[in-house]
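Suppose you are handed only these lines of text.
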Amino acid sequence: MHFEFQVEGGNFSKAGTASSQLKKILKQLNVDSRDIKRVVVALYEAEVNVVAHAYQGVIIIDIDTEKIRIRIEDEGPGIKDIDLAMQQGFSTASELVREMGFGAGMGLPNIKNNTDELTVTSEVGKGTNVHMLINFSI
Ligand SMILES: Nc1ncnc2c1ncn2[C@@H]1O[C@H](COP(=O)(O)OP(=O)(O)OP(=O)(O)O)[C@@H](O)[C@H]1O
Ligand SMILES: [Mg+2]
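From them, the structure of the protein bound to magnesium ion can be written out as follows.
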């Protein structure tokens, strides 16, 4: 199964749309609830990162019999030092983003903890790609 969602940078009212849609789909497929939780947390954090840090993005989801592959590709400022960005507590979130309750620097570490494979690539001034794979049982 294949799904795609668009993400608008700066639009916090829509942040979480893709992850809640995916939650419904995985429930219908009878995926184990612990695995659903991992997928939803990981996608939510990646989705919010596009809203908080980039201009726009696309989420591409491929669901197989026992794994889900998610690609989040955005146009935005990119990430200068990915190893640093992956560390707990590192954040460049703006004052506005912090007022919205984000910016603890926990998103990427959270994605890492909830996925079986994670690859983050980025080009400064162009954008960021986050690829994740989660194995699940039904
Ligand atoms: N899609 C992205 N585009 C540009 N920079 C990003 C992107 N995702 C993450 N970053 C950079 O990596 C940092 C760490 O991201 P992370 O998700 O861990 O924390 P945060 O978004 O700042 O705060 P939190 O996720 O806890 O609300 C961000 O502050 C930002 O500098
Ligand atoms: Mg984040």
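What can we learn from it? The chain has one domain: 2-135. The helical segments are 17-28, 33-53, 82-85, 95-99, 107-114.
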